[in-house]
Recover the amino acids of this structure.
């Protein structure tokens, strides 16, 4: 886990902040643009942007008198890799548990299933 992964995960824990990050992942925007999209004030948007920037999830660049923000593709790639690993581990654990649970049942069915099958055939012949 990188030094910023925990901070990045915590920063995306707020619904509005996550929505702002998703919006910035689609297109770079200034505070005024973001404020027009969300039911919060410009100062509130700026506060969310500061937290996202401190977590190094977004980048900023001056464009005349305004600052334009955009999602950092490297930070988003790190988050995606984290969730990919987490889901891969979870699915592998689930598969191991399912196979371990199914193994005794399969063995039991093999052992008893053939006997039942044979006894059914005998009944049919009589």
């Amino acid at each position: 886990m990188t030094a910023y992964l925990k901070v990045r995960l915590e920063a995306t824990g707020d619904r509005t902040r996550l929505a702002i990050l998703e919006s910035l992942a689609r297109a770079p925007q200034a505070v005024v643009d973001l404020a027009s999209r969300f039911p919060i004030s410009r100062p509130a948007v700026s506060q969310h942007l500061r937290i996202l920037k401190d977590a190094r999830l977004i980048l900023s660049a001056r464009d005349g008198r305004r600052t334009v923000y955009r999602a950092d593709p490297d930070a988003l790639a790190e988050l995606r890799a984290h969730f990919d690993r987490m889901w891969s581990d979870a699915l592998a654990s689930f598969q191991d548990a399912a196979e371990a649970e199914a193994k005794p049942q399969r063995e039991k069915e093999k052992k008893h299933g053939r006997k039942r099958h044979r006894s059914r055939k005998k009944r049919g012949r009589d």
